């Protein structure tokens, strides 16, 4: 698991001529920070302030992740711990949606977003991220396995209303699940590049800006390696923090295989 990260960091420190050695060398021989200096120089010359790309990325990732975790948890709580007409049908639809590739749903998604007037706005990315079916599936499976109904009934008998039961009992007990969901959402939104819903340069993300730097060809191979390391930092840190919770959630939800 560590080797790809070590290789990426090693590549980012290689002079350009070392990157093109054949056979390739795993470790850098003459480390240099020139790739990072070139990257920051190119970033400073962008006609859109680079801080704008960073702000867009953090806004989309932060709001999208928070909304997804909250909405998936609320829906999962209703599906796993309450009985109502159509409950099984709804969950079957959630499971069925997991079978469809994102490529298949691109056109319907674009039509819906366009009809709602969300093209070229943050809403076009953030609001669809709220409704990812994988998060709902994970949370429901985890709640069914880890939260006994007797615990919830005891809380209700003590006078706790549903919101208090959810926030004070359910959410702390399913912490591994929503931490796992958080890392999945961060990985998906942080790495989002030139999204089809966004045309305005001022609304594009950091990954898109870095991909434009890579468009310079082989002369920017070293700069591209430095950019790849920068893009890795946030998802890797988030994964390291939540790693044990991810493993526990997958084994509990039946997705470890």
Automatic annotation (TrEMBL):
Main location: membrane
UniProt domain ABC transmembrane type-1: residue ranges: 54-242
Biological processes, Gene Ontology terms: transmembrane transport
Localization annotation: Cell membrane
Membrane-crossing residue ranges in chain numbering: 53-79, 91-116, 122-139, 218-241
Keyword Membrane carried by entry: yes
InterPro entries found in the cross-reference section: MetI-like (IPR000515), MetI-like_sf (IPR035906)
Bilayer topology: Multi-pass membrane protein
Domain of life assignment: Bacteria
GO CC list: plasma membrane
Pfam family of the protein (one): BPD_transp_1
CDD domains from the UniProt entry: TM_PBP2 (cd06261)
Keywords tagged on the record: Cell membrane, Membrane, Transmembrane, Transmembrane helix, Transport
Family listed: Belongs to the binding-protein-dependent transport system permease family.
PANTHER family: ABC TRANSPORTER PERMEASE PROTEIN MG189-RELATED-RELATED (PTHR43744), BINDING-PROTEIN-DEPENDENT TRANSPORT SYSTEMS INNER MEMBRANE COMPONENT (PTHR43744:SF1)
Protein name per UniProt: ABC transporter permease
Organism of origin: Clostridium thermosuccinogenes
């Amino acid at each position: 698991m560590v080797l790809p990260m070590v290789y990426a960091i090693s590549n980012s420190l290689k002079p350009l001529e070392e990157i093109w050695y054949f056979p390739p060398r795993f470790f850098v021989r003459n480390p240099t920070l020139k790739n990072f200096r070139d990257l920051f120089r190119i970033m400073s010359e962008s006609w859109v302030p680079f801080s704008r790309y960073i702000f867009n990325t953090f806004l989309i990732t932060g709001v999208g992740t928070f909304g997804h975790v909250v909405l998936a948890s609320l829906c999962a709580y209703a599906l796993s711990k309450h009985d109502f007409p159509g409950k099984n049908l709804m969950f079957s639809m959630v499971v069925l949606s997991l079978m469809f590739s994102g490529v298949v749903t691109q056109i319907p998604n674009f039509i819906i977003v366009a009809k709602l007037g969300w093209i070229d706005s943050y809403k076009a990315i953030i609001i669809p991220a709220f409704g990812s079916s994988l998060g709902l599936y994970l949370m429901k499976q985890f709640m069914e396995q880890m939260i006994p109904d007797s615990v919830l009934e005891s809380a209700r008998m003590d006078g706790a209303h549903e919101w208090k039961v959810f926030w004070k009992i359910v959410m702390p007990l399913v912490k591994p699940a929503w931490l796992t969901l958080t890392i999945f959402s961060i990985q998906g939104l942080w790495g989002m590049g030139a999204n089809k819903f966004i045309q305005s340069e001022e609304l594009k993300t950091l990954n898109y800006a870095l991909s434009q730097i890579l468009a310079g060809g082989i002369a920017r191979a070293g700069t591209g390696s430095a950019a790849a390391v920068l893009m890795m930092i946030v998802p890797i840190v988030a994964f390291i923090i939540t790693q044990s919770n991810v493993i526990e959630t997958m084994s509990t939800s039946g997705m470890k295989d």
